[in-house]
Amino acid sequence: MTVRVEVRLPDLGEGIAEGAIGEWLARPGDAVTEDQPLVEVVTDKASAEIPSPVTGRLAEAIAASGSVVPVGSVLAVLEVDPSDLGREDREPAPSSTSSEAGPVEVAATPGARRLAGRLGIDLAAAGIAAGSEVIREDDVRAYAHAHGYTSSPGEMPRREEPREGAGSEAFPDRSAIASRLTRAAAVPTVTNVDEADFGAVQSSGVSPLTALAFVASRALLEHPRCNMLAPDGNPVPQGSVHLGIATQADARLLVPVVRHAETLGVAELDAAIKDVSSRARAGHLRPDELSGSTFTITSAGRMAGQWSTPLLNLPEVAILGLYRIADRPVARDGVVVIRPMGNLSITFDHRYLDGLDAAAFLQAVIDQLECWRERP
């Protein structure tokens, strides 16, 4: 006797309300194991593989490839031996709203995001005006008409023709990114920049990003105000460091998450960062790996320049930037020497964090980098 278990489209994070069904990675009748990818789901933010919650057999693939389904829809049905179910908490469950999973942002359809991005409309404001749980294109059109934007409720704004020789792939949709960054740009932030000597890190053979992630995750335990989330204007300290690693994937900026980074050794953390970053670029992240971060590190490596002012990964209150490391002349004990120096920045939400707190955290990070030794 078997038990039928439904696999539903989970909360994909970033306020995404629906997803397009891509390729099925298993076929009806196939035996599947727990965590085995079943189907690819594509949104305007990223693509993700939906895993099997249990070991069993794929009985039905309900959602057809190419269809668009809302969060919570049944994607597939599994037939499972009762002995394989184990604990009750292995059954598919509704999307979590705990602080670990991260607060849900504005929920909107991809079409609504595209239209809002094109018109420069804040989706959150459009949602409040509409009183809708999920913002749709009609809500954005109505908001545009009421507030004097160029589009009327009955017509879509004219789409610009692509430049000659440029296909749609050359100019992918960035409406989700535009909406998110518009909200982040409205936050009153301050950026503090200082430099660090990376000589000890380079001598150890550890990558600067891994070393920075390691010391930052430890320093956040000593400076917990930098590891807060502020959903709805209420700052909430976080017990663990779920580290977001800003990753460029084609024309998309994704932030895959390394959970409980403060518990990982250097080698474990290095492997985890490489794993989520490579899978982010390939579009193979699970939905839960794109949400729930408490603090983010951003770096463009050799292309990073001297320094910049990153935007926050809301609802986080701080973000750490790593920039180009290069040989520079510096004074040591009254003598000018050449050292591998790199700038670090801490950008923070001044509503919840003062400059002294942010500067103390940044200095703790620099001190640990400059006295770096082989770590476990």
Shape: globular
Strand content: 25-35%
- Supply the helix-strand structural class: alpha+beta
> Averaged pLDDT, please?
80
* Low-pLDDT regions: 87-105, 151-170
CATH topology heading of the largest domain: Chloramphenicol Acetyltransferase
Q: What's the structural domain tally?
A: 3
Q: What gyration radius follows from the Cα positions, in whole Å?
A: 23 Å
Helix content: 25-40%
- H/E series: EEEEEEEEHHHHHEHHEEEEEEHEEEH
Number of helices: 9
Number of strands: 18
Profile the largest sheet: 6 strands, mixed
- Provide the CATH architecture of the largest domain: 2-Layer Sandwich
CATH C-level label of the largest domain: Alpha Beta
- Oligomeric category: single chain
Strand order of the largest sheet: 9-18-17-16-12-15
How far apart the termini lie comes to 48 Å
CATH superfamily of the largest domain: Chloramphenicol acetyltransferase-like domain
Describe the structure.
- This protein is of the alpha+beta class and 376 residues long.
- The chain has helices spanning 82-85, 110-119, 123-130, 137-146, 175-185, 199-204, 208-222, 266-282, 355-370; strands spanning 3-8, 18-24, 31-32, 37-42, 47-51, 56-61, 68-70, 74-80, 189-197, 228-229, 236-237, 243-245, 247-249, 252-254, 257-258, 295-299, 318-332, 335-349.
- It folds into three domains: 3-90, RNA polymerase II/Efflux pump adaptor protein, barrel-sandwich hybrid domain (OB fold (Dihydrolipoamide Acetyltransferase, E2P), Beta Barrel); 110-185, no CATH class; 189-370, 2-Layer Sandwich (Chloramphenicol Acetyltransferase).
- It has nine helices and 18 strands.
- Strand 13 (247-249) and strand 14 (252-254) form a beta hairpin.
- Helix 3 (123-130) crosses helix 4 (137-146) and helix 7 (208-222) crosses helix 8.
- Mean pLDDT is 80; it is low at 87-105 and 151-170.
